[in-house]
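not sure who needs this but someone in the group chat was asking about Dihydrofolate reductase from Arenibacter palladensis so here u go. i didnt clean anything up, its just raw.
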Amino acid sequence: MSKIIFDSGISLDGFFAGDNRGPNNPMGGVSGKLHQWMFKQKAFWKQIKMEGGEEYGEDSKLIEDVFARTGSYIMGKRMFDEGEVVWAEDLYEADVYVLTHEKRKPWVQKGTTTFYFINDGIESALEKARYSANGKDIRIQGGANTIQQFLNAGLVDEFFIHIAPVFLGSGIRLFDGIDKDKYDIEILEVIPSNLTTHLRFKMTKK
């Protein structure tokens, strides 16, 4: 049965992205600070269909695992707008459901990636994503507001965060506005690494 998951990097002070996000300033310009551990891994560059990376280690296996378990994706319009101009063709190799007010026909890419533009809320996107996932997991890709919507609706089963050893001081926090009484939370895994700390949590709706 599909789980609803997210997998995100944050700073020590809880920021998911920097200030002034947009297509010309993806992630508010802080990707290099939050995701340095990931950029070092050959598995990351392979997944985005580019050459790069310095090593194939345990962190690479974590990257491969989350892609392997995911059968469909849900993301917000801002994340889509930032990525549309730079993402490789067939990057996701799965159906992607974009939450938006924009009316737009599906964007069918060469390969197995199709972007669908959903105008009637997270439950509609989830129903469609569950069908596409075919028993694999549904990943809430981002941004922070989209993840918060799913958390506050009591829909998240598990999440993985990667805490970078950096303070950003300002930006977009991942857990702003979260209903603190929605879940019982269990730590499933703590994995240390040179450039981050990986934490996996199980969420059980009360």
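also The domain at 4-198 is CATH 3.40.430.10 (Dihydrofolate Reductase, subunit A). if thats useful
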